Amino acid sequence: MNLHEYQAKELLKKYNVPVQEGIPVDTPELAAEAYKNLKVQYGNEFAVVKAQIHAGGRGKGKIIGKEQRGVAVGKNAEDIKTIAGNLLGGTLVTIQTGPAGKLVNKVLVAQDVYYPGPNPVKEYYLSILLDRAKGQNVIMYSTEGGMDIEEVAHNTPDKIFKEWVHPSGGLQPFQARKIAFNLGVTGNAFKNLVKFVTNLYNAYVGVDASMLEINPLFKTSDDKIVAVDCKMNIDDNAIMRHPDLEALRDITEEDPTEVEAGKYNLNFVKLDGNVGCMVNGAGLAMATMDMIKLSGGEPANFLDVGGTANAQTVEAGFRIILRDPKVKAILINIFGGIVRCDRVAQGVIDAYQSIGNITVPIIVRLQGTNAAEAKELIEKSGLKVQSAILLSEAAELVGKAVNA
Q1: What DSSP string runs through 149-183?
Q2: I need a labelling partner for 322 at 20 to 30 A (CA). Which of 18, 125, 312, 371 fits?
């Protein structure tokens, strides 16, 4: 589950991680009020307005039809109001959103951290995620923080450092000091960075995050270490341990079909192909998708109906697949172990009769428990479907359908 920047920062504060303070708002008028409040509290003349969407690259992104960037600095309340007005309700296109962009429903008005002081300011990069190959969390960091970190990783990978953390021992003090040393900080900044890294790692583990990225990690002119931006993803499998975090989910940022599938406990992932898939079991689903590609088609989705599928969940999955205008054929591939094939067949029949006027070819392969009963149900229903016994036969029928 992805979080917005302002949500992630509130979580970090609970673990004593210093962040760039800000106020989330959803109208230009409230943005101007937020600026005034921040100015009274922190005394800074400038403030930053940041579009709140689940995507990176906001600083270089633009609102469609406008020259407005996703992150902009204002020097007075009127500036802030104008920037917020340009962002709110607009569609922001960044390198991570694709050309369709994302609708901006909320902005964060944040304090200016570039205030003058005795020392130079500096931007760093730091992230924590799971290295699945090693079975350990890894802290990735660099002296080259900011908007071009992807180019740094591509062009100068030697500037990206990594520190692995053993799960049984957790982050050790010497590791936090090593990170601060490699980033080249000294004096009070060194002490503050060690504390920052330690608390940040505790936050990562404490909320069951699967990814936590701070970019930029900022050293102020008076040697404070602050998280200016934060991207956080919570492990979906751990949400049950954090009922308070589930309330932070923003379904407007998610694919509507995936949200709908979740209501029926369907494992659904939207893809860009032309063949809709309905399968039971992740392994069989992956094999089915491979067969579709080998036959000349492209999977339009991953849909695992699971072992407890019934007619209602199958009908729901069927409807979700048909919402995709790119779908030229649907392949239903069910091996009846726990799930009964006749239940799946009944779901297909109910969906077909309920939706009506289905023009795409439907290929059905049902094997296993009650497969004979399922075949009889479909034959008596009068549905215009094509049956297959072998997966290779089903794939061949799919190939003919998409290449017709």
Answers
A1: HHHHHHH-GGGEEEEEE-TTT---HHHHHHHHHHT
A2: 371
